[in-house]
């Protein structure tokens, strides 16, 4: 968007001072100057603009960005500040699939001045489940009959039935000479019974209220008491439609703003209102016992007069047009794109009397450029894993294979083609090993690669024999790491303690950082074949004689000799295994080959 290079940008122009040179043709539609303007050139540039001495000129540039990283539009080149002009950002179009949208924003709680000035805020009722005051002044309301319904700002609002419903917000609003501002969203009901208040504490020519100006409702006016009633000009509401009202007082002037625009302003009100003697009610006229029908939401009171710019911003903030991301107010606006594509946002500059606007774009990419025919993205190698068919791994992220053609993979709508692997892909070799149950054993990996950055190894079990206490686990280490049956793999070595016989299959992963934001992977698997421990060896005076051997199931184990001069037991074992005990078990007996029972010690 550009103010100095735009088409059909302005309506009618009023200058308090000579504007600077512009470039346009057919420049003005309706212009009043206090001084003769200089030559200008442009195309249908102005429509309706009122300038004071400060002139608006500049360009807001389109931007680019990547998914998941904050992107910022910069409106500071417009040459004005938020003290004189409102900057209002509103989404016009976002790419399909994006969750970014315009939204309503509640006013900040506890007097915090974040995106709106809450100085001198003395009451703030969001009506989210209750009528509690979140301004910090403790003016909690007491609900009588009013019910929760869907609201304009946030989730909920209060509905008044026109028969007996009201909310008592207390006696702290008996203003006499103080300036004030009331802000709220209202949806009027179809019918009203007599003169009823949206809010008020008037009685006996004291206090003030916002009441219907006729017995049939639909038009509302301010009434104040100072020994007699003073009536302001009326503003109409449309039943069933949400409308934003702001009522301000500055001395003897009371004004009503409707949807951010000044509707009526009366300067004949008394400078001193006689203090009310009854609490303020929302939705009822206590004096006459009349009840209002409709819905109220986001009700706030300030003990100061909100400016025209503040009221304009307040309406924009809560109308549903304010861009989500950072709150769409201010000279800059930031958001985090969630999909690729073009995001179009409108910046409107508004001084509460007139406005100018234009669109700017953010073109968002995925952050990497597809390179077909190489199988690599910025030096990162795509490799199909063996765990799940149809998945590929890139820097630890899983990319879903598309349905267009075999061998293609897609990220956020961009198709990446897999093909011959590049020459600089690393390789990994892990030899098979053998070992015995109960003895620690290690796999050793050897990688071949071009050194461009850091490297890393990762290990995981692919399969293990049944009955093993080792379990398949995470990609970053063996399950049970630090326990008795496996260790935390470090670098190119992964050690484990096989506890049953069988084949243990492990997968190793090697990663080499290319130093350019990417890297390459290599994989290999290896098998550790584990056999049982050696049988017990029992020696005698005759080393060639096998003293113990298995007999049939009924006789168990037997000796082959009647005399044992020296008996010793030798067996390799670990701390997790029980020692070999020479003796009898269950109903198996230990006998001599001569069928005589063995009576020696065991």
Descriptive account of the structure:
The chain is elongated and about 110 Å long. Strand 32 (383-384) and strand 33 form a beta hairpin. The protein contains 1 helix and 49 strands. It is mainly beta and 602 residues long. The chain starts with 11 loop residues before the first strand and ends in a 10-residue tail after the last strand. The strands form 14 sheets. Strands 8, 10, 11, 13, 19, 20, 21 and 25 form an 8-stranded antiparallel beta sheet that branches. Strands 9, 12, 14, 15, 16, 17, 18 and 22 form an 8-stranded antiparallel beta sheet that branches. Helices cover 2% and strands 39% of the residues. Residues 1-54, 370-423, 473-485, 550-559 and 561-602 have low confidence and may be disordered.
List keywords for this structure.
single chain; 8-stranded antiparallel sheet; 2% helix; disordered N terminus
How many E strands?
49
* Rg over CA atoms: 42 Å
Global morphology: elongated
Give the overall pLDDT as a whole number: 75
Classify the helix fraction into a percent range: under 10%
Largest sheet: 8 strands, antiparallel
Number of helices, counting only DSSP H or I runs of 4 residues or more: 1
Unreliable residue stretches: 1-54, 370-423, 473-485, 550-559, 561-602
Strand content: 35-45%
Alpha carbon gap, first and last residue: 98 Å
Q: Structural class of the helices, strands and pairings? A: mainly beta
């Amino acid at each position: 968007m550009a103010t100095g290079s735009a088409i059909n940008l302005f309506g009618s122009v009023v200058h308090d001072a000579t504007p600077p040179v512009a470039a346009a043709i057919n420049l003005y539609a309706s212009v009043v100057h206090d001084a003769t303007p200089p030559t200008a050139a442009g195309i249908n540039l102005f429509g309706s603009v009122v300038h004071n001495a400060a002139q608006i000129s500049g360009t807001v540039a389109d931007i680019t960005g990547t998914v998941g990283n904050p992107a910022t539009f910069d409106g500071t080149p417009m040459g004005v500040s938020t003290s004189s002009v409102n900057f209002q950002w509103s989404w016009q179009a976002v790419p399909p699939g994006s969750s970014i949208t315009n939204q309503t924003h509640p006013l900040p709680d506890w007097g915090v001045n974040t995106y709106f000035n809450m100085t001198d805020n003395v009451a703030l009722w969001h009506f989210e489940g209750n009528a509690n005051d979140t301004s910090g002044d403790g003016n909690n309301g007491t609900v009588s009959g009013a019910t929760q319904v869907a609201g304009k700002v946030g989730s909920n609002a209060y509905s008044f039935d026109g028969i007996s419903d009201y909310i008592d917000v207390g006696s702290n609003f008996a203003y006499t000479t103080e300036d004030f501002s009331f802000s709220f969203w209202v949806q009027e009901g179809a019918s009203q019974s007599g003169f009823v208040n949206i809010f008020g504490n008037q009685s006996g020519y004291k206090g003030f209220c916002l009441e219907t100006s006729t017995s049939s409702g639909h038009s509302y006016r301010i009434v104040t008491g100072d020994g007699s009633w003073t009536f302001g000009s009326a503003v109409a509401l449309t039943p069933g439609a949400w409308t934003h009202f702001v009522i301000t007082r500055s001395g003897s002037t009371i004004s009503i703003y409707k949807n951010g625009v000044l509707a009526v302003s009366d300067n004949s009100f008394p400078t001193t209102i006689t203090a009310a003697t009854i609490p303020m009610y929302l939705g009822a006229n206590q004096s006459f016992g009349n009840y209002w029908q409709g819905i109220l939401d986001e009700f706030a009171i300030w003990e100061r007069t909100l400016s025209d710019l503040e009221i304009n911003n307040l309406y924009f903030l809560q109308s549903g047009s304010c861009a989500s991301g950072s709150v769409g107010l201010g000279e800059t606006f930031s958001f985090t794109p969630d999909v690729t594509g073009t995001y179009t946002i409108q910046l409107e500059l508004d001084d509460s009397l007139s406005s100018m606007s234009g669109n700017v774009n953010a073109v968002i990419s995925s952050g990497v450029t597809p390179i077909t025919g190489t199988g690599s993205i910025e030096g990162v190698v795509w490799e199909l894993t063996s765990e799940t068919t149809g998945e590929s791994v890139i820097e630890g992220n899983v990319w879903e294979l598309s349905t267009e053609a075999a061998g293609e993979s897609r990220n956020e709508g961009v198709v990446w083609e897999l093909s011959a692997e590049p020459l600089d892909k690393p390789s990994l070799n892990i030899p098979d090993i053998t070992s015995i149950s109960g003895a620690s054993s290690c796999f050793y990996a050897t990688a071949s690669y071009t050194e461009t950055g850091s490297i890393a190894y990762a290990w995981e079990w692919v399969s293990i024999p049944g009955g093993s206490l080792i379990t398949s686990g995470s990609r970053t280490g063996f399950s049970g790491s630090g326990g008795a049956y496996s260790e935390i793999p470090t670098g190119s070595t992964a050690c484990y303690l096989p506890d049953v016989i069988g084949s243990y299959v492990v997968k190793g992963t090697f990663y080499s950082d290319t130093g350019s934001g990417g890297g390459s992977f290599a994989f290999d698997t290896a098998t550790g074949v584990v056999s049982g421990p050696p049988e017990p060896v029992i020696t005698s005076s005759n080393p060639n004689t096998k003293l113990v051997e298995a007999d049939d199931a009924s006789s168990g184990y037997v000796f082959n000799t009647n005399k044992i001069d020296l008996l010793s037991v030798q067996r390799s074992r670990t701390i997790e295994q029980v020692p070999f005990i020479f003796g009898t078990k269950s109903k198996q007996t230990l006998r001599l080959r001569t069928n005589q029972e063995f009576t020696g010690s065991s």
